[in-house]
Design a protein that fits this description.
This protein has 430 residues and is of the alpha/beta class. Helices cover 45% and strands 13% of the residues. The protein binds uridine-5'-diphosphate-glucuronic acid. This is UDP-glucose 6-dehydrogenase.
Length: 430
C-alpha cells in the first residue's frame, strides 16, 4: 500500500514509523506494516497511481457556508484523472471520504472522464465508506460490522472486493454508488438522532421530577425488537450505547454529516424535519447544562468553574465541535472564571478558544482545576475524571456543586459527601 499526502512532514513521519494522529493501537500497527514492507508514504501521486490497482480517495469533506465542501475531492480527482490519461492498465478510483449521494457517480465520474479522456468502464469507480470511530479506529477496522462496496460495474466491484475478501468475518454488501454514499450518511444521522432523542427525553425527565431518564432509556433498550441479543445477554445497558443521556454529540463526523444531509435534502426540495431537530437539540443541550448550573449557583459572574474534559469524547485529543467548547464559551459569556482540564486535548482546544481572555485557563491536572472551584462540570468521561472520589471534590472545592454531564457519578454518594449534584436526565434537587 502506498499512502499519498501533499504534506512532506507527514510523509516523512509515516515513513519513519511515526503515527501522525493520536489513535490507540495505530503506532504499533504502523510499525508492523512498515517493517513487513507493506506500506510506504510519498508525496508523489503519479508514482502511487501508476504502481497500484486502486486509488482510495480519503480526503476531508468539511462543511462550510451551508454545504459540504468538495474542493479537496475535486482537486484530488482531477490529479488522478490526469495520471489515468497515461495509464494503460485498468485502475479503480474508490471514494472513501464521506460524500453526499450522487457525488461519486456525477461529480467524480465527470471529472475523471473529462480529464482522463476515458469512459467509466475503461477505468472503475467505487464508493466504499468507512464506519470507524475515533479512539477505536484500529479496533473497528480489524473487526467491522459490515463492509459496504458501491461499484459502477462488476469489474470494479471485484477489484475492491479483493482488498477485503477473506480478511474479515463481516458481510460484504454490494450496492450502487449512491446507495453506498447514503448508507454512510444514514448511519451517522441515525446515531446522532438517537443521542438527541435520549437528550430530549432527559430534558423532559428533568422538568418532570421523580424520574431518571437514564433508568428509562436503559429499560427501553431492552426491547428485543430493538436489540435481538437481549435475551442472551440479560441486562446490558451498553448495548444501545447511543441512547445514553449526555451533553450532546461532537466530533468531526456527526455534526458535519447531519448538516450535510440536511443541506443535500433541502437542495432536492425536501425539508428533513427530524434531522433539523437532531441538530437543534444538540446545540441546546450544552447550553442547558450551563443554565441548570446557573439556577443552582446563582449569578455566574466571577465564579470559578472547573470544566472536566475538552475532547469531544474520551480516547482522543480531537476537540472539533466538542460540547466542551460551547459550554466554555457560554460560561465566559456569563462572566465566569473557567478552569478547563483535559489529559491530552489542551493544545488543540487552545487553538479554538479565546485564549486572550484572563478568565480562561487550560490545564492537564484536574486537581489544579478543582482547587477552590465553586462548581465542576463533567463534559468528557475520561477514566481519570470518572474515578474522582467524592472526598476530593469536597476537599479541593469551595461548597462543591457537581454538574454531571455524562451521568457517570453516583448521585447518592456525592450528596452524602455534601456535594450539590446536578445530573443530565434528573430533576434538580439541590
Ligand atoms: C462516528 C461514528 O460512530 C462512526 O461509525 C463513523 O465512522 C464516524 O463517526 C465517521 O463518520 O467517521 P466518532 O465521531 O468517532 O464516530 O464518535 P462516536 O463514538 O460515535 O461519538 C460521537 C459523539 O457522540 C461524541 O461526542 C460522543 O460523546 C457522543 N455520544 C455518543 C453521546 O453523546 N452519547 C452516546 O450515547 C454516544
Amino acid at each position: 500500500m502506498i499512502c499519498v499526502d501533499k504534506r512532506e512532514d507527514i510523509v516523512r513521519r509515516i515513513n519513519n514509523r511515526e503515527a501522525t494522529i493520536y489513535e490507540p493501537g495505530l503506532q504499533v500497527l504502523l510499525e508492523q506494516v512498515i517493517d513487513k514492507g507493506k506500506l510506504s508514504a510519498t508525496s508523489d501521486l503519479r508514482h502511487a497511481v501508476m504502481n497500484s490497482d486502486v486509488s482510495i480517495i480519503a480526503v476531508g469533506t468539511p462543511f462550510g457556508d451551508g454545504r459540504i465542501d468538495l474542493s479537496y475531492i475535486i482537486s484530488c480527482t482531477t490529479e488522478i484523472g490526469e495520471i489515468l490519461r497515461e495509464k494503460s492498465k485498468y485502475h479503480v478510483v474508490c471514494v472513501k471520504s464521506t460524500v453526499a449521494p450522487t457525488t461519486t457517480d456525477i461529480v467524480v465520474k465527470s471529472i475523471l472522464e473529462t480529464v482522463s479522456g476515458k469512459k467509466v468502464g475503461e477505468f472503475g469507480l467505487s464508493m466504499n465508506p468507512e464506519f470507524l470511530r475515533e479512539g477505536k479506529a484500529v479496533e473497528d477496522f480489524i473487526n467491522p460490522d459490515r463492509i459496504v462496496i458501491g461499484a459502477s460495474d462488476n469489474k470494479s466491484f471485484n477489484v475492491v472486493n479483493r482488498i477485503y475478501k477473506g480478511y474479515f468475518k463481516a458481510p460484504i454488501i454490494r450496492v450502487n454508488l449512491r446507495t453506498a454514499e447514503m448508507i454512510k450518511y444514514t448511519s451517522n444521522a441515525l446515531l446522532a438522532t438517537l443521542i438527541s432523542y435520549a437528550n430530549e427525553i432527559a430534558s423532559i425527565c428533568e422538568e418532570t421530577g421523580g424520574v431518571d431518564a437514564r433508568e428509562v432509556l436503559e429499560s427501553v433498550t431492552l426491547d428485543k425488537r430493538f436489540n435481538p441479543k437481549v435475551g442472551k445477554h440479560l441486562i446490558n445497558p451498553e448495548m444501545v450505547s447511543y441512547l445514553r443521556v449526555g451533553c450532546g454529540f461532537g466530533g468531526s463526523c456527526f455534526p458535519k454529516d447531519v448538516k450535510a444531509l440536511i443541506s443535500f435534502s433541502a437542495g432536492k426540495g425536501y425539508e428533513p424535519q427530524m434531522l433539523e431537530s437532531t441538530m437543534s437539540i444538540n446545540e441546546t443541550q450544552p447550553v442547558r447544562l450551563v443554565n441548570r448550573l446557573e439556577k443552582t449557583i446563582g449569578d455566574l459572574d466571577d465564579k470559578k468553574i472547573a470544566v472536566l474534559g475538552l475532547a469531544f469524547k474520551p480516547d482522543t485529543d480531537d476537540v472539533r465541535e466538542s460540547p466542551a467548547l460551547i459550554i466554555i464559551r457560554e460560561l465566559l459569556r456569563k462572566k465566569a472564571k473557567v478552569f478547563a482540564v483535559d489529559p491530552i486535548a489542551v493544545n488543540n482546544a487552545a487553538m479554538m478558544l479565546p485564549m486572550d481572555a484572563d478568565e480562561l485557563v487550560l490545564l492537564t491536572d484536574y486537581k489544579v482545576a478543582l482547587q477552590n472551584a465553586n462548581a465542576a462540570i463533567l463534559v468528557t468521561s475520561w477514566p481519570e475524571f470518572v474515578c474522582i472520589p467524592s472526598y476530593e471534590f469536597v476537599s479541593l472545592m469551595n461548597k462543591p456543586i457537581l454538574v454531571d454531564g455524562r451521568r457517570v457519578y453516583d448521585k447518592k454518594t456525592m450528596e452524602n459527601a455534601g456535594i450539590s449534584y446536578v445530573g443530565v436526565g434528573l430533576e434538580d434537587t439541590g
